[in-house]
Design a protein that fits this description.
The chain has 17 helices and 5 strands. With about 350 residues, it is an alpha/beta fold. Strands 3-2-1-4-5 form a 5-stranded mixed sheet. Strand 2 (about 185-190) and strand 3 (about 195-205) form a beta hairpin. Helix 6 (about 80-90) crosses helix 8 and helix 8 (about 105-120) packs across helix 16. The chain starts with a helix and ends in a 5-residue tail after the last helix. The model is unreliable at about 330-335 (pLDDT under 50).
Length: about 350
């Protein structure tokens, strides 16, 4: 029995013609520029916020994790993946813009940023760490003492808000901070040379600084006496304990004013670090339009890259071109948290600053 195919599809002639006429978009490979060769050192830093030496060091550390097994279909080279990610950090633009800069699609740019950020974030313990030996503790104490003669300090702690897009779901409003936008409240401990020694980048913007610190690993280490009688200087958003000291909100007398002047200057490195970090990687100021887990990886990655740059004496970020950063938004509490009994602040006032 012969059946004429046209009789089976009399009612769907138009759909069949559209299917027959459909043509898949042609596969194209865009030209990719060798940015390592094209730009001199100054222009390279302007575009990628890091020197060529630092980029090559980072590439050597993550090459195996971001390389592909073969070079079929003009696979993207590891150096191009790293440069695309750095360009995304340096501009804070959309992924499609970063992809166009290197000649890849938006979907490829998304995968590359996630892959490279995760690979670098895994180096966290290699570049972000607190002192481990008595010699390192003594060196930090001497460095902080040289700033404003504040004794026993080994770190300056503070939190900063990194703007993100709404993560969605039932818990999305937890990420809305008191300024009204969605953010991650990121805690860092900084050394006098602006290096980040500890970072916590998992708490939503509505969480208080003291809550983040109380649940952090560094709090447990301080309580257990890992660094002896060492101190960490903080602002008035933290609670005075035997290891955390803060300024007086209403100092009374010359001694407390002298103490305030010393501690404010001593904790200045943490504020400077946030300024350098957000100036070097404007995406941290302009906001992250990524998934929550990827945003956390990006924050840690930027901190690692900052430390690597500091190791290469690259403390000053290059000037920004055609990028307008919003003003720094400092979120502090308006009241002083009650001191614990036997807090280190009263001991310093009684035994050290009263004798200066």
């Amino acid at each position: 029995m012969n059946i004429q195919p046209n009789l089976l599809f009399e009612d769907d002639d138009e759909e069949i013609l559209e299917f027959i006429n459909y043509r898949r978009r042609p596969y194209t490979v865009r030209d990719r520029i060798n940015h390592m060769m094209k730009w001199d050192d100054h222009d390279f830093r302007m575009r990628f916020r890091l020197s060529k030496v630092v980029v090559e060091q980072v590439l050597d550390l993550i090459r195996d994790n971001i390389s592909v097994e073969n070079q079929w279909n003009c696979a993207i080279a590891p150096i191009d993946k790293l440069l695309l990610t750095l360009r995304f950090y340096a501009t804070g633009s959309f992924l499609i813009t970063a992809g166009d800069f290197l000649g890849v699609s938006k979907s490829s740019a998304c995968v590359i940023v996630r892959t490279v950020s995760t690979a670098i974030a895994r180096l966290c313990h290699q570049f972000i760490y607190m002192p481990t030996t008595d010699e390192e503790v003594y060196t930090l104490q001497r460095s902080f003492y040289k700033i404003a003669r504040f004794p026993r300090a080994i770190g300056a702690i503070d939190c900063t808000h990194i703007r993100i897009q709404s993560p969605g779901g039932h818990n999305a409003e937890y990420f809305r901070n008191r300024k009204g936008y969605f953010s991650l409240n990121v805690q860092t401990v900084v050394s006098p040379d602006l290096k980040i020694m500890d970072i916590v980048a998992r708490w939503p913007g509505s969480c208080h600084d003291q809550t983040i610190f109380r649940n952090s690993n560094i709090h447990s280490q301080l309580v257990n006496g890992k660094w002896g009688n060492s101190l960490i200087v903080a602002d008035s958003g933290y609670k005075n304990t035997s290891h955390i000291v803060t300024p007086f909100i209403n100092p009374r007398g010359n001694i407390e004013e002298l103490y305030n002047e010393s501690i404010i200057r001593t904790r200045n490195p943490v504020e400077r670090t946030y300024g350098v970090l957000k100036r070097r990687f404007p995406i941290l100021s302009l906001g992250l339009r990524l998934k929550l887990t990827t945003s956390q990886a990006v924050i840690v990655t930027c901190s690692i890259l900052h430390n690597i740059a500091c190791n290469n004496n690259d403390l000053e970020a290059p000037d920004l071109v055609d990028v307008v950063l919003p003003p720094n938004e400092i979120i502090n509490v308006n009241h002083e948290i009650m001191d614990e009994e036997g807090c280190a602040r009263q001991q310093l006032i009684r035994e050290y600053f009263s004798r200066l």
